[in-house]
Write a structure and sequence with these properties.
This protein has 343 residues and is α/β, with parallel strands linked by helices. Helices cover 41% and strands 9% of the residues. Strands 2-1-3-4 form a four-stranded parallel β-sheet, with helices on both faces. Strands 6-5-7-8 form a four-stranded parallel β-sheet, with helices on both faces. Helix 2 packs across helix 7. The longest helix has 26 residues.
Length: 343
């Protein structure tokens, strides 16, 4: 009798899960945010495999099938994955597609130009503890330039390209910087947007989506306070990154990035660019050069030679972290620890 009594509740649970929309996401950090909102109800599919460059990617058959089944797709946007536009049109034509860079109130920065980045007054960032104030984001939102945000240059460079090729690529490196998930305030906003969309599609579970999103927002607000405290003593210590993917994190927490070895994550730096970075390391007293897990450590060694600077790995995608709701906050914690240890 006890077993029979359990059957109705199990059937109700199965029915509720069956009504949950099929959801796909582009990269692991966005998959994590959607997983947080869907916690207890379902799990989204991931289109770009962990560790792969999102700027240029060939879908596996199983990932194409995920898009084909999706009722909702959450992506950073065209600036990060220009190649995804055609698969979305062909495979997910009936799905709701949310480009998170386009969300009203999101902080959006434009790409920086050149190998070396200018110094900033950190007093401009002293208001970062106000986690619910998006009114100042208008300084970064230039949505009229979205059509110029194509990141196609990332798809054509290889390590065999000569200096002239990289210079041409550098000229095209304009428009939106798409690495916006590295600002936790964007992530907090996006949690609410994700919950609102899923609640509209699945009203029976709306309360759960909204509750999960609010819990996630609170967790990230607390985490941001902790990160700001950990990094505050290091704000004036300049560092170099492998490629310019960390502007959102740097700006949110007032860090000093002196430059980037490589223009993008799939482009090889020219000899002139490396020389400029080496000069910057010496002139500005750079104490750390950050590498990334999938890129040539020899280039970092070349930049470091004779400088005495430290080096460690940071990863904007959480390549080696377990997929799921905790990946995004774990990614921020991992980056914070790596930066603090190296600086």
């Amino acid at each position: 009798m006890l077993r029979l009594a359990l059957i109705p509740s199990l059937l109700l649970s199965t029915a509720a899960l069956a009504d949950v929309p099929r959801v796909a996401t582009d990269i692991a950090p966005i998959h994590s945010l959607v997983s947080r909102v869907m916690e207890g109800l379902g799990t989204p599919d991931l289109v770009v495999s962990p560790g792969a460059s999102p700027h240029g990617y060939a879908l596996r058959p199983s990932q194409a099938a995920d898009l084909d089944r999706a009722e909702a797709v959450f992506v950073v946007g065209h600036a990060l994955t220009p190649w995804l536009e055609n698969p979305l049109e062909q495979l997910a034509a009936d799905a709701v597609v949310i480009e998170l860079l386009e969300v009203e109130g999101a902080t959006v920065h434009m790409f920086r130009q050149g190998a070396v980045f200018e110094r900033h007054d950190h007093d401009d960032h002293d208001d970062h503890d106000d986690h619910d104030d998006h009114d100042d984001h208008d300084d970064h939102d230039d949505h009229d330039d979205h059509d110029e945000a194509a990141h196609d240059g990332h798809d054509v460079n290889t390590e065999d390209h000569a200096m002239d090729d990289e210079d041409a690529h550098d000229h095209d490196h304009t428009g939106q910087d798409p690495h916006a998930w590295l600002d936790p305030e964007n992530a907090r906003l996006w949690l609410s947007v994700i919950a609102a969309q899923l609640a509209t599609m699945d009203p029976e579970n709306a309360a759960t989506y909204h509750a999960n999103a609010e819990a996630g927002r609170a967790e990230l607000a607390e985490l941001s306070v902790d990160i700001a405290a950990d990094l505050a003593p290091l704000r004036d210590r300049p560092f170099i990154v492998f490629h310019d993917a960390y502007q959102y994190f740097e700006t949110r927490f007032g860090l000093t990035n002196a430059g980037a070895i490589s223009l993008g994550d799939v482009s090889a730096p020219s000899a002139a660019r490396i020389a400029e970075i080496r000069e910057t390391v010496a002139d500005r007293g750079v104490t750390c050069v950050f590498s990334e897990p999938q890129f040539n450590p020899g280039l970092v060694d070349t930049v470091l030679a004779g400088s005495g600077a430290n080096t460690t790995v940071i990863d904007p995608l959480g390549t080696y972290l377990p997929l799921g709701a905790t990946l995004y906050p774990d990614l921020l914690r991992q980056m914070t620890a790596s930066i603090a240890d190296c600086l």
